[in-house]
Write a structure and sequence with these properties.
binds pyridoxal-5'-phosphate; four-stranded antiparallel sheet; Aspartate Aminotransferase, domain 1; 2 domains; Aspartate Aminotransferase, domain 2; alpha/beta
Length: 377
Amino acid sequence: MTLLSNQAFERLRQIPLYVPGKPIQEVQRELGLDSIVKLASNENPWGPSEAVKARVVKAATGSRDEGLGLYPVSDGYYLRLAIAKRRECNADQIILGNGSSEIIEMAAKAALLGGGSTVAPKHSFAIYGIATQTAGGRFIECPCSPTELDVDAILAAVQPDTRAVFLGNPNNPTGVMLDRPGLERLVRDLRDDILLVVDQAYAEYEDPETYPDAADYLDERSNLLVLHTFSKIHSLAAMRIGFGIGHHKLIALLERIRSPFNTNMLAQVAAEVAVQDFAFEAFSRARNAEARQAFFAEAHNHRCNATGMGGNFILLESEIPAPELFKDLMRAGVIVRPMQGYGLPNHVRVTLGKPEEMEAFWAAVAPILDNAGCGCR
Ligand SMILES: Cc1ncc(COP(=O)(O)O)c(C=O)c1O
């Protein structure tokens, strides 16, 4: 068939498919289990906040001026104003995306118009590579250990045709972070014609006093885009909304790529409340820190190798191949994320959930490791 032998489709077939965390309903359907704990997609189990939920209900059931029958504000002006207030910048420095993944795609399309390559550390968020390749670019994964983000390796991987560098800080799935001196070096030493995309999807989980925010360098580097999402600490993953901050001229260019009405009205009003909800953020950050500490204590008890200091997730290494451990845990009613597709064949990523969810996780994983006679590494 002509359609299937198309050259572009052949190239598309070479691009890896993004494999999302398995939804609870799917596992229920497949395995007939009633009680399932999902720790697979780094969602925040504590939210969204009551204030956000009330605002969504009001908007969904509201007057004709704000109702579901109208198109949303195409560029999300009012949300951009609220974000700009919080971030102490101007609304023309903000772009909204249908999740920050969409802004990663916009950045790749913008930077790669006319070809070229992008660079990201090995073991990074899969969308960096997928967005690059679907934009027609070449993706260069620089060698990086899962326990460190190496600025020298990133800079050394850059080629004459490199148009963008992606960096998750903290990085998903490894949970490693670049400190301020490292970030500063990347901002200053990366060729200035290259778009540096710093993905701060998990930034709000870090201590605001010490977190090295890439937005602090926007005056120094105009080729810098800083990404945030409402899917993580704000617990709005189902709404699909995220934002990018950059120089107003960069944002104006990205606006040429953004699809009209890309973010929906309910997401815009929900995020407008969430971005000002400091109390919910602080609450979630504190619960996450407790869950992290408890996880490392349990991992120590079970002689498991657990790593990752940032975000709301932990990487767990065992002697059982990741796809096998993933399936065994699923049969026991716990969904985690196997990491073989991220160059980590013996790791699963575990999202930090509520105490009772973590109890269910350890109750499921301990006998599996014992039965395999291996424990963790
Ligand atoms: C590092 C990183 N960036 C971006 C995203 C995308 O988030 P969303 O598209 O839901 O905003 C994720 C989601 O898991 C992520 O881990």
